[in-house]
Amino acid sequence: MRSLIFAIVVSVTALAGVLLADRPVAETGSQGRAGKATRKSSLIEIEECRIRLIDDVQLASARTGIVDMVAAEGEHVRPKQVVAKLRDELLRAGLAITERQATNDIEVRFARKASELAQLKYSRAAEAARSVAGTVSELELKELRLSAEKSLLQVEQTEQQFLVAGLRRDESAELVNTCRVVAPFEAEVLEVFKKPGEVVREGEPILRLAFGSRMKVEGYLPLAQAARVKRGALVHVRLTGEDGADVSDEVFAGRLMAIDMKVEPVSRKVKVWAELPNDNGLLRDGLTGTMSISLRETDVARRDE
Predict the structure, then answer these.
(1) Which residue, 39, 70, 98, is CA-closest to 229?
(2) Beta strands of the chain (E only): which ranges?
(3) Which tens digit of pLDDT belongs to each residue from 172-195?
(4) Are residues 71 and 39 part of one domain?
(5) C-alpha distances out from residue 140 to 102, 126, 128, Å
(6) Which one-letter DSSP state was computed for residue 25?
(7) Quick check: pTM over 0.70?
(8) Strands of 65-70's sheet, edge to edge?
(9) 19 or 198: whose pLDDT is higher?
(10) What is the share, in percent, of the chain residues with pLDDT greater than 90?
(11) Which of 31, 42, 51, 235 is the S-S candidate for 274 at Cβ 3.0 to 4.6 Å?
């Protein structure tokens, strides 16, 4: 009887071992809730990846001043559009002065005419001295020559002063531009930190812009798997909820853009992120998803694509 029971236990144990051997092996690891990665034959899956904005910036003031204008929250702005401005009346007055100086070339024209006259006096005196000895003394001839050379130097000096006036005009124009804050790309105004009439210091944020036409999805891979993926690899992302279940049938395709050069010290994982187009606007900052990274060479885009 005991032999029969022992034989049954051995048989059940062997069968369980065979069943467990047939199950896929999941490589897990944690980075907070950075997720677990499951390796398959042709792709690697990373769960609990984080969706984030790519085009998301805070625009600051380049100088200290008083806010004169700022775009409204929710406003859609174009690239290079002025979204905030400081009071610049004093700087504009200085720019008007330097513009007038930069266009005033009277001193240059006068110096050139004076130089022509000095050169003419010296050449005629030298010609007269060669024609009739004693007509012009040697001392007088040297004085005329010195005057002619001095006039050439005066022309050069006035030209340099005219050039400096133009540079000062450019400097004044740049100072006026520091009172403006322009949008670096097409975006929407998400937050406004300063209102018209408030004082802002140099480097202090005035407003925040973002645009959701493209998003990034971040995840963490074990070191061994990070060595297998390549930049430009095709990725697919499914949105998931807090329980890890899919919340949408939509699958978003993109490309792996970066593989971090450093390893997280605790989890020994490597951060990777991919870029996804967001044409339908379903992707939002803060969502989570599962990212599948293709390992096939045919799914890796070239750098110049």
Answers:
(1) 39
(2) 37-39, 43-60, 65-70, 76-77, 82-86, 180-182, 187-192, 199-200, 205-222, 234-240, 246-263, 269-277, 288-294
(3) 999 999 999 999 999 999 999 999
(4) no
(5) 38, 10, 12
(6) P
(7) no
(8) 180-182, 82-86, 65-70, 199-200
(9) 198
(10) 70
(11) 235
